[in-house]
Amino acid sequence: DPIERQSVKAFSSANKRKEDNSSQLPTLQFLSEPLRVQKEDMLIEYHTGEILSAMDQKVFMGLQALWKKKGEGQQVVFTYYELANLIGFPTKGSGYRLIDEALNSLFNTRIFLHQTQHTDELEVEKQGMYRLISSIQKTNIKKGESNAQFYEVCLGDLVYKSLKQGFYSYISMPLIRDL
Questions:
Q1: How many CB atoms lie within 10 A of CB 27?
Q2: Phi, psi at residue 170, to the nearest 5°?
Q3: Which of 14, 75, 132, 154 is the most buried (most CB within 10 A)?
Q4: Secondary structure E strands in 24-64
Q5: Alpha carbon 110 to its chain's center
Q6: In angstroms, what CA-CA distances link 91 with 65, 96, 145, 148, 153?
Q7: Phi, psi for 77 (deg, rounded to 5)
Q8: pLDDT tens-digit profile of 116-143?
């Protein structure tokens, strides 16, 4: 199916992470000129300047699994621990930074689709711009020594419609964790 094929093409297996000071909080990064990659009738813009990595793909697949588990709404609410445990990220320390960076990368990726249909008398051209994730909200709750981190992620319209129409695959998360 074209939607699933297109969403898979958005990812690269290259790992883009560089070690940095883990005490710094990740910030939204915008470049004046995004990295652009053309794939058939689709243009992908990466506003962080880097192609999505295997880590980003794991987080994206984890979001899809949580979407299915939590009622299939456009907004997915989950704890850091739920996602980290599901995709095999560390449930302490550096895992928070990895998930924040991956969500930032997914949020800053736009997909432009261009479709043209021809008939004997008519040519119809359709163009659209979509985000993988349209919004992210993170809430930290501290009580004494306990700390909980909740995410509210709103899936992009194209992703949400594709998932609702059944354009997803069942993937073994234990297998993904081993990759």
A1: 8
A2: -80, 120
A3: 132
A4: 35-39, 42-46
A5: 11
A6: 18, 8, 16, 12, 19
A7: -110, 130
A8: 888 889 998 888 888 999 999 999 999 8
What's the rounded Cα separation, in Å, for the pair 122 and 78?
A: 47
Mean predicted lDDT score pLDDT of the chain: 78
Q: Rounded distance, CA 93 to CA 91, Å?
A: 7
How far apart, in whole angstroms, are the C-alpha atoms of residue 130 and residue 117? 20
Cβ count near 171 (within 10 Å): 11
Question: What does pTM read for this prediction?
Answer: 0.71
The pair of three-digit structure tokens given for residue 179, joined into one six-digit string: 């990759």
CB within 8 A of 93, min separation 6: which ones? 22
Taking a C-beta distance cutoff of 8 angstroms, is the pair 173, 82 a contact?
Answer: no
